[in-house]
Amino acid sequence: MTEAAQLNFPAGFTWGVSTSAYQIEGATSQDGRGTSIWDTFAHQPGRVVDGTTGDVACDHYHRYPEDVALMADLGVSAYRFSIAWPRIQPDGTSPANPAGLAFYDRLVDALLDRGIDPVATLFHWDLPQALEDRGGWLARDTAYRFAEYADLVARQLGDRVKLWITLNEPFVHMSYGYGMGVHAPGRMHLFDAFPVAHHQLLGHGLAVDALRAHTGNPIGIANNYSPVWLRGDTEADRAAAGAYDALHNRLFTDPLFGRGYPGELALDSAVTPDGPVVREGDLEIVARPIDFLGVNYYNPTGVRAPEEDGPLPFDLVPLDGYPTTNFDWPVAPDGLLDLLTTLRTTYGEALPPIHITEGGCSYDDVLTADGHCDDPERVAYLAGHLQAVREAMDAGVDVRGYFVWSLMDNFEWAEGFTKRFGLVHVDFDTQVRTPKTSYAWYRDLIARQP
């Protein structure tokens, strides 16, 4: 087992954990909360592998004092959570729901009382169903509704939330939710889902303006990144790798820093029945200055040219020689080092400080009869990836914090309760929380830092 003492970070480095609302809160029909696209999706037969839903999840809505106590014992300096849009605006357009805001008031105050900085994500995929019925993120109007929602939340919490994140993983929401249909809202538009990218980013820029009106604290966005590792040596293979990099990584980063959309994707010329997707002034809004970039990293992606004609200009191929999680994702800490140094090289002085806003792994963690849960693979995963962060920092990348995904086992989207990412084991029948070996390891690591 890797000793926590071997990893040393500078004073002031942020140590955190992450969760999201639909995955842990439950209480989906309480206190005036509206229906989200994930409520609708999860209740459709065949959408979630084990037939479960987030109706109860980890019951964090009622058990948050216990969960905050777990974080305090862990010693984290920050907690990244998401705010459920339909808990604030049940139909996506109404005035703020006082009961919904009150829950986040209680949570934020409980965190501050224990010396934990609240880090709030405004959108982690739970769009109000009423907005989806009007087009969802395919509709330009949703960007403006998102800004109004951001304003409502910031008015209430702007004085206490220490870091703000507008969107979580807009690439995943676009591709899985609107491109391939495996996440809510379950649409299968493939490349016709590109308007979702722009409308999310437009909403981000508008939300930055709304947040700035109520807080002086740092604002950023959390993107999912996957370094593209070429698996082939032909010109076609290199073109395929470039296309995938443009889609997964650069589509949601280039425009943030004033570069517009990658030319390979031809998004600037996309047109819908309502007119051009990208309109005059949009890219200036998208490129509103941010104070940090959230980086979510899980694995690199192997890419080569497609072996036969199909809808995609690339093939995704396994990366041999790496152990895998039970998601079959390769465990590749060198991919995180590659990613961080590439971001610094690509964007130079335009790149703001980075927070690793998600990093973690899923394994088949089992609670023994005597009440223990040993997860040495997760300990090794975290040690390797934190070492990669340290090496990136030594190479000049300005990384300010690391948030483990996740505090606790939770509802893992279309995988239901079949995947466990937590530092804390959750019995989903009894809601009993049991810290795992990785929890103790992370606690020791944090305690030994300056």
TrEMBL record:
Molecular functions per Gene Ontology: beta-glucosidase activity
Catalytic reaction annotation: Hydrolysis of terminal, non-reducing beta-D-glucosyl residues with release of beta-D-glucose
Keyword annotations: Carbohydrate metabolism, Cellulose degradation, Glycosidase, Hydrolase, Polysaccharide degradation
Protein name: Beta-glucosidase
Family, per entry: Belongs to the glycosyl hydrolase 1 family.
PROSITE patterns: GLYCOSYL_HYDROL_F1_2 (PS00653)
EC number(s) from the headed UniProt entry: 3.2.1.21
InterPro entries, alphabetized: GH (IPR017853), GH_1_N_CS (IPR033132), Glyco_hydro_1 (IPR001360), Glyco_hydro_1_beta-glucosidase (IPR017736)
Organism: Micromonospora sonneratiae
